[in-house]
Amino acid sequence: MSPHTVRDYGVTFRRLLAYLGDVEIESITTADIRRFLDHLAGEYDLSKRTLSNAWIALSSFWTWVEIELNIAHVIRGKVERPKYADKIPDPFTRDEVRTLIKAVEYTKGWTTPAGKRTESRRPTASRDKAIILVLTDTGIRAQELCDLTTRDYDAQRGRLHIRHGKGDKERYVTLGDRARKALWRYLSDRGKTKLTDPLFATKSGRAIDRHNLRHMLDTTGRNARVSNVHPHRFRHTFAIEFLRNGGNLLVLKELLGHESLEMVMRYARIAERDIDESARHSPADNWRI
User: Fold this and answer.
1) Long-range contact set of residues 56-60: C-beta below 8 Å, sequence gap at least 24
2) Dihedral angle at the C-alpha atoms of 160, 267, 98, 177, nearest 10 degrees?
3) Which of 110, 156, 163, 287 could serve as a FRET partner for 12 with CA atoms 20 to 30 Å apart?
4) Phi-psi region of 7 (alpha: psi -120 to 50; beta: other; left: phi over 0)
5) What residues have CB less than 8 Å from 122, skipping those under 6 apart?
6) What is the pLDDT of residues 135-149, one digit of tens each?
C-alpha cells in the first residue's frame, strides 16, 4: 500500500471517529455507515470517486475486524459502493508540451519603469524541464517521480528504476534522447551527488514532494496559458502517444504499472491508429521538443 493510500485511509478513519464519537466498534451499524457516507458527501463536498475510495477503506477495515475480532461485516453486501463515471483521458498536444517546456526556462515577463519588456532565467529551469520531459516520456506517477533517487537512474541505458510503484511493485521505464539530455544537464548543474540523494531535489537538497511538484506544474501552466496541468495528464499523454505510434498494449500495461488491461484499453479506444507490435516510443523525441 502506497504512503498516499495510507494517508487517505487515515483521513477516512479520523472522520469516521469524529462523526460517531467514542463508541464500541461492535455497536456500529450498517445505517451508521450509510449516514457517514452521506455526511462526507455533504460536509466535505467530496466527489463520487473520493466517496468510493472512502467506502473501500471502510470495507477493508471491516474485513479485518471480521477476521481478527469475529465481528460481523456491516458493509459488504449491505452498503453499495458509490459509483462514478471515469473522465475521458485528455492528453496534452505537442504544442502544449512545447509551450510548457519554454515556460519553465524563464520567469513570467515584466515591464521595467523604462518601458522595456524583460524576463530572467528561473533558478530551477533545468530541473523543471527535466521533470516535464521525464513525465512526458515515461508516464510515471507523481509519487513515483518524487521517490526517485540518483541510484535509480542508469545514465548509460537511459533507464529509471521505479522501486515502489502502486501495490509496491517495481518496474523499469526508459527515457528518450531529449529527456536523457535534459536530465544530464540538470544533474550536471547540481554537481556531485550521492546515490541516496533524491533525483529531483528542492533548493535545500530535499526530495521534492507531491505538493512541490503540483505547485511547479500549476505555476508553469499559468505562465504558459495551458490549462489543467497535472502529473496524471502527462501519464495520459504518454500512454495515448505510445499507442498512436504502434506501441503494444501489454508493453504499455507494464510500463504504466497497471495490474490489468482495463485502464490500458481506455487509452486504446482513444488512440487514432491501429495497435501493432513495436519498440518503445518516445513522445519527446517524436515531437522534437
Assistant:
1) 56/81, 57/8, 57/9, 57/12, 57/13, 58/12, 58/16, 58/33, 60/9
2) 30
3) 163
4) alpha
5) 104, 105, 106, 107, 128
6) 999 999 999 999 999
Per DSSP, the three-state class of 149 is: strand
Helix (H) or strand (E) holding 85: none
In angstroms, rounded to a whole number, what is the distance separating the alpha carbons of residues 160 and 149?
Answer: 10
Q: Taking the mean position of all CA atoms in its chain, how far away is CA 258? A: 13
Spell out the residues 6+ positions from residue 69 whose beta carbon is closer than 8 angstroms to its own. 25
Per-residue pLDDT at 274 = 42
Beta-bridge partners for 207: 201
At the top level of CATH, the class of 94-287 is mainly alpha
On whether the CB atoms of residues 206 and 212 are closer than 8 A, the answer is: no
Q: What DSSP line would sit under 10-75, residue for residue?
A: HHHHHHHHHHH-S--GGG--HHHHHHHHHHHHHHS---HHHHHHHHHHHHHHHHHHHHHH----SS
8 is written with which cell numbers? 487517505
User: Which residue's entry shows cell 535509480?
Assistant: 152
Whole-prediction pTM:
0.69
What is Dmax (Cα atoms) for the chain? 77
Whether 171 and 259 have beta carbons less than 8 Å apart is answered as: no
